[in-house]
Specification:
Chain B: It catalyses: a quinone + NADH + 5 H(+)(in) = a quinol + NAD(+) + 4 H(+)(out). Chain B: InterPro entries: NAD(P)H_OxRDtase_bac/plastid, NADH_UbQ/plastoQ_OxRdtase_su3, NDAH_ubi_oxred_su3_sf. Chain B: It comes from Carboxydothermus islandicus. Chain B: It holds the Pfam family Oxidored_q4. The structure holds two protein chains of two kinds. Chain A is built from 20 helices and two strands. By secondary structure, chain A is mainly α. Chain A has a domain of about 210 residues. Chain A has a two-stranded antiparallel ribbon with strand order 1-2. In chain A, helix 3 packs antiparallel against helix 5 and helix 13 packs parallel to helix 17. Chain A is globular and about 70 Å long. Chain B has three helices and no strands. In chain B, helix 2 runs antiparallel to helix 3. By secondary structure, chain B is mainly α. Chain B has a single domain, classed as Up-down Bundle (Methane Monooxygenase Hydroxylase, Chain G, domain 1). Classes of the chains: A mainly alpha, B mainly alpha. At the A-B interface, helix 1 and helix 9 of A face helix 1 and helix 3 of B.
């Protein structure tokens, strides 16, 4: 028996794996006090692989027969995962030096990226679960990094248990599917459904899988873990969780539902609409009273998951294009905000919103990036978030008018808590007026996220075109 | 004729009731003794020697982890070894990579002092 493997399509994954092992071996053979370079090496390595992605864009197909699909959507999300990895490893070094186990952090970050890349290409339960667990288990280790502090340990334990529970729920759903359809392949499920129709047990399995994915994207009512984990995890890890993990989970969620159940939409769109509405309302309303910046960003990221779910309800080409566009834009804004939080926490040890008073006087660039990121998340023109929300909500107005209206109202609500931070940053006087100096890697990260957020807001066409090309695979 | 939904309902109800019946039966039928002997620490059927509230060393945890690592390796090695002739060079190279990654893990554990008894 031999398996058909197309290695050409697997080059990015092989490179990331090699990079992870290389960093690991380097960390083994160099003494601890000489390991500072490993962080920068991780960033550069991931950047190199990211630069390969435009070449990979041209080669699509089945990498492993029936199990591993490399299409343009997969490549798009792989590039997003790499981008998240690059930014996270770029903002982490100074912060992780204080926490300890410095080089391990970067090894884990690289392997997390690998997990995401496997996940977004999966077309089979086995590869899906493999990628998901590679991503989740490394994330468990990363979230538990601040184990010396009480909330850090709490975050680690909480993520461990809830990730375990969500995996169990997902697995239960998948095993029910296997029992009902005798296939592990996601695409084959659709064929079985077409021939045999569906049974109540099938719907039950679908709900289990939906719940499993909803945990990962932190949709209400499966969001309980997010605020505590986001607050207790090291800030670069929080940024990674909010961007990379979320994007990859969304990618597989949509691929799964769109490929496996295209003919039985009526059984899941209602559920999804409820989930989206709940997520937007709870996320935005609970974000208002938060006093901790990381907690507020956690609730805001829950709300953002709600907007993206709204986009999925279009279940067509335009919706998928919008989702891909929005996830990229959201990634830039989130990384920008968390990069500022990382630096500030590293310099002052504080992360409450009121502690950011007078940031504009201490570091104008940090204040500017924070404001641009938050306003982009709120969807204020001319920033990229506005274009993203426009793409998301426009296709569903016809069939889901009430949901689009709710999304718009909730976007308005979100402006309040985002602007509150802006007010503190620009209006209030700082307690300590010493300017904050930024390391180069963070400086570049801040500049890039801000530039992309502004440029894509004014001229979204290039990214929209790429997303459109990728979404073509959903044209049927 | 029972609808499929009805079958699921019966399945759930039976499961639910059965667990309750078993718990209740257990409670009713089991002999109850509240003597002191029952509360003694049980150690392989023998009488305990010395105090039983001793602390176990946390180091065992490390050994368990390293053990699991190589236990899993063996599980994967056996089927491969049995079908070695059929699987050929490709599987051999894959196995070498697999063992190589595990060896790196052992190397790390060794370097971090997980194999030393403290």
């Amino acid at each position: 028996m031999s398996v058909n493997i197309n290695y050409l399509l697997l080059i990015p994954e092989i490179l990331v794996l090699s990079l992870g092992i290389l960093l690991f071996v380097l960390a083994l053979i160099t003494p601890r006090n000489l390991q500072k370079g490993i962080g920068y090496l991780a960033t550069l390595g991931l950047l190199g692989i990211f630069l390969y992605m435009p070449i990979a864009w041209k080669y699509t197909g089945m990498a492993i027969e029936g199990m591993y699909q490399v299409d343009k959507v997969a490549i798009f999300f792989k590039a997003l995962s790499l981008l998240a990895g690059i930014f996270v490893t770029a903002i982490a070094p100074k912060y992780m030096e204080k926490i300890g186990y410095y080089s391990e952090f970067f090894v884990f970050a690289v392997f997390t990226v690998l997990g995401m890349m496997v996940l977004v290409s999966a077309t089979d339960f086995l590869t899906l679960y493999l990628g998901l667990e590679l991503m989740t288990i490394t994330f468990i280790i990363l979230t538990a990094y601040k184990r010396e502090s009480a909330i850090g340990a709490e975050a680690g334990i909480k993520y461990l248990i809830l990730a375990g529970v969500s995996s169990a729920i997902l697995l239960y759903g998948l095993s029910l599917f296997y029992g009902l359809t005798r296939t592990l392949n996601i695409v084959d499920i659709a064929a079985v459904v077409k021939n045999n129709g569906i049974t109540p047990a099938f719907v039950l399995a679908m709900v289990f899988v939906l719940a499993g994915f909803a945990f990962k994207i932190s949709a209400v009512p499966f969001h309980m873990w997010a605020p505590d984990v986001y607050q207790g995890a090291p800030t670069p890890v929080t940024a990674f969780l909010a961007t990379g993990s979320k994007a990859a989970s969304f990618a597989i969620f949509f691929r799964f539902f769109y490929l496996a159940f295209p003919g039985i939409k009526e059984h899941w769109v209602g559920l999804l609409a409820t989930l989206a509405a709940l997520t937007m309302v709870v996320g935005n309303l609970v974000a208002i009273p938060q006093t901790n910046l990381k907690r507020m960003l956690a609730y805001s990221s829950i709300a953002q998951a709600g907007y993206i779910l709204v986009g999925f309800l279009a279940t067509d080409f335009a919706g998928f294009k919008a989702i891909m566009f929005y996830l990229s834009v959201y990634l830039m804004a989130t990384i920008g905000a968390f990069a500022v939080a990382t630096v500030y926490e590293n310099v002052t040890g504080k992360e409450e919103i009121r502690d950011f008073a007078g940031l504009s006087q201490r570091s104008p660039i940090m204040a500017a990036v924070l404001v641009v990121s938050l306003l982009s998340m709120a969807g204020i023109p001319p920033l990229a978030g506005f274009a993203g929300k426009f793409y998301l909500f426009y296709p569903i107005i016809k069939n889901w008018g009430w949901l689009a209206l709710l999304a718009l109202i909730m976007s308005m609500v979100s402006v309040y808590y985002y602007l509150r931070v802006v007010l503190v940053v620009y209006r209030d006087e700082p307690e300590d007026k010493t300017p904050i100096t930024l390391p180069n890697s963070i400086y570049f990260t801040l500049l890039i996220t801000m530039a992309v957020t502004i440029v894509l807001g004014v001229y979204p066409t290039p990214l929209a075109k790429i997303a459109q090309q990728a979404a073509m695979i959903f044209m049927k | 004729m029972l609808s499929p939904k009805g079958a699921i309902l019966i399945f759930f109800l039976t499961g639910f009731l059965l667990s309750i019946i078993i718990l209740v039966l257990n409670y009713l039928l089991s002999p109850k003794s509240k003597s002191l002997i029952k509360r003694e620490t049980y150690e392989c059927g023998l009488e305990t020697i010395g105090p039983t509230w001793v602390q176990f060393k946390g180091n065992y945890f490390m050994y368990a982890l390293v053990f699991v690592l190589f236990d899993v390796e063996t599980i994967f090695l056996y089927p491969w070894a049995v079908r070695f002739n059929v699987l050929g060079l490709f599987a051999f190279v894959e196995m070498v990579i697999f063992i190589g990654i595990l060896v790196l893990g052992l190397w790390y554990a060794w370097k971090e002092g997980a194999l030393e008894w403290k």
